[in-house]
Amino acid sequence: MGENHFAAVPTAVYGVVLLNAGLAWKVAQSEIIKHDSPHSRLRKAVASDFKGNLSLALYVVAIPLAFVHQAIADALYIGVALMWLVLTAGSNATSRRRPRRRRSAQPLRARITAAPAIAPTAMVFSGGGSPPARLAA
């Protein structure tokens, strides 16, 4: 689009590419859901898939609009991209956070010293000889 100064045909072709990518994603997503369990997290996450359907609809509207006024089509393409970036970042950060694991009440130093030690005789040395002098004692 840049070398053609945002002419109508390259803008419409760009929309067709975006639409095909969206349709391919939709087909792949539905096949994964179909073969997954009925209670899968993916099925729950894309229950209505509002953003996916809206994206496809906006691409379908933007392709013919490229021949009317290409700036409107470009604005729709940018709007879809921003919708995915802005709305996804906000929803993932707050609503799908996993609960934190509880840390041990025992201090780190106590956990390290309480760990079982490996006996030097159980170690395998690559040289085939005896263990180093500091471990032989």
Description:
The protein is mainly alpha-helical. It has a domain at 8-93. Helices cover 64% and strands 0% of the residues. The protein contains six helices and no strands. The protein has helices spanning 8-35, 41-45, 50-68, 70-94, 108-114, 133-136. It is elongated and about 70 Å long. The relative contact order is 0.09. The model has no long low-confidence stretch (mean pLDDT 77).
Radius of gyration: 29 Å
- Approximately how much beta-strand content do the residues carry? under 5%
N-to-C terminal Cα separation, in Å?
74 Å
Q: Please, how many helices?
A: 6
How confident overall, as mean pLDDT?
77
Helix/strand/pairing category = mainly alpha
- Major β-sheet, in short? none
Gross morphology is elongated
Helices and strands, in order, run as: HHHHHH
- What is the number of strand segments? 0
Q: Poorly predicted ranges (pLDDT <50, ≥5 residues)?
A: none
Helix content: 55-70%
What labels would you give this structure?
137 residues, mainly alpha, 6 helices, 64% helix, elongated
Please give the structural blueprint.
Elements: H1 8-35, H2 41-45, H3 50-68, H4 70-94, H5 108-114, H6 133-136
Helix pairs in contact: 1-3, 1-4, 3-4
Short note summarizing the structure:
With 137 residues, the chain is mainly α.
